[in-house]
Design brief:
Elements (H helix, E strand, L loop, with lengths): L7 E9 L5 E6 L12 E8 L2 E8 L6 H4 L25 H7 L1 H10 L15 H10 L19 H4 L3 H7 L23
Antiparallel strand pairs: 1-2, 1-3, 3-4
Organism: Angiostrongylus cantonensis (Rat lungworm)
Protein name: Peptidase A1 domain-containing protein
GO cellular component, one term: extracellular space
């Protein structure tokens, strides 16, 4: 077993540039208890002959001046979090409840989350499940964005994403996925 206090860790901070390109900044030490300098880091730790490697994830807190637009104000409870949409692909709600009861409990009891109990997929596939939630329209109702078509538009240019409404009201917005290269919109759509 590797003990973090004895381990020597090095790696690279990862900053996303585009859907396919990341910027890597190497580091030779990772101090215990210090925040990461980017949201993601590829890390290798050694403790004697033992080795651990993996990806660390966190959220780098920017100053309010960097985050907030001129007309925006922080949330009343100063949590910095106003709306958070969490989705699990290829997982029914009942399977989610059976297999991840602790997560369900934290979402519903601790965070007081709104759970879409009656939600049903509108179509067949991941984009067809997420596009209506994020735009209030089906893929067929929106301008063409499929990569294989020459006349395809970029989703950011033509989709009325919900975060555009939040941004125009002064909210700070972010869209993220666990695997950018195979993201819900990156595979089939022009991003």
């Amino acid at each position: 077993m590797i003990y973090r206090k004895r381990a020597k860790c090095s790696g690279s901070y990862v900053t996303r540039k585009t859907d396919q390109i990341n910027d890597y900044k190497p580091f030779s030490t990772l101090p215990i208890g210090q925040p990461l300098f980017s949201d993601f880091a590829i890390v290798e730790c050694r403790d004697g002959n033992l080795l651990w490697n993996g990806i660390l994830m966190g959220v780098v807190r920017l100053s309010d001046k960097e985050l907030l637009r001129k007309s925006a104000t922080p949330s009343p409870d100063n949590s910095g979090l106003n709306v958070y949409i969490l989705g699990f692909d290829s997982l029914s709600q009942m399977t989610f409840r059976r297999k991840m009861p602790k997560t369900v409990n934290v979402l519903e009891e601790t965070l007081n989350s709104v759970v879409l109990n009656g939600y049903n997929i509108v179509g067949d596939g991941t984009p067809q499940a997420y596009i209506p939630i994020l735009t209030a329209s089906t893929e067929e109702e929106l301008p063409l964005t499929r990569k294989r078509f020459r006349e395809a538009n970029y989703v950011d240019d033509v989709y009325p994403f919900i975060w555009n409404n939040f941004s125009s009201s002064g909210y700070v917005t972010l869209y993220g996925e666990d695997a950018f290269a195979i993201g819900n919109l990156a595979v089939d759509c022009s991003t």
